[in-house]
Amino acid sequence: MFKTIVSADTLGAALDSVSVLVDECKIRLEEDGLTIRAVDPANVGMVDLELAAAAFESYETDGGVIGVNLDRLEDIVGMADSGQLVHLELDEETRKLHISLDGLEYTLALIDPDSIRQEPDLPELDLSAEIVIEGRDIARAVTAADMVSDHIALGVDPDDEEFYVDAEGDTDDVHLELGREDLISEQGHPLRRRGKDRTRRGVPRQDALQLRGR
User: Fold this and answer.
1) pLDDT (0 to 100) of residue 81
2) Same domain, yes or no, for 166 and 205?
3) In this predicted model, which residue has the larger pLDDT, 156 or 3?
């Protein structure tokens, strides 16, 4: 059994962060919320998403796993206006998801979870720093970087205690710095190595983004 009511904004943002990497995924229906873990076909990027039951207007389930086509589900949720509520209910006999919003009724055929790529194991990483940043700040940085390059470097200057974003193109460069006072929080030792992140979408501007690194 699965029956829930959730804001279209909340559900849309969650789906968008996963569809950046994959077209279909398994959604685990846990008592305390939904979980999704998936890796892109090239094994370059992985998403591990938890949407707590508290994020829903109402949430009922007795557990289970469903497989969904993210493009189709996003298209349906995208029909809702900002702030509207989306009602979802699983028909266990037909294995279809009934979705209703603002008088519109949809029936979405689900995918056999066994036919979807196996969920990846979480790698064991020794992460010595954790930074929480406003979603709008990282979105601004990615938008600026996208004008000059298809990848960005993220890091922390241990001397100036600044989080930075760098992008280098053939002729143009972008650099953004955020001091400790501009971050929501910073824990552990500063990041001392630069890394690449090819993700371009998926972070709502109003949300906070948690970054961890070595």
Assistant:
1) 93
2) yes
3) 3
Q: Residue for token digits 């030792």?
A: 189
Q: What percent of the chain has pLDDT over 90?
A: 58
DSSP string covering 58-104, please? EEEE---EEEEEHHHHHHHHTTSPTT-EEEEEEETTTTEEEEEETTE
Q: Does residue 133 share a domain with residue 111?
A: no
The amino acid occupying position 21 is L
What is the residue range of 194's domain?
A: 129-213
Q: Which of 115, 138, 153 represents a domain boundary (last residue)?
A: 115
How far is the C-alpha of 45 from the C-alpha of 60, rounded, in Å? 31
Question: Beta strands 104-109 and 96-101: pairing type?
Answer: antiparallel
pTM over 0.90: no
* In a domain? residue 202: yes
Residue-level pLDDT at 151: 86
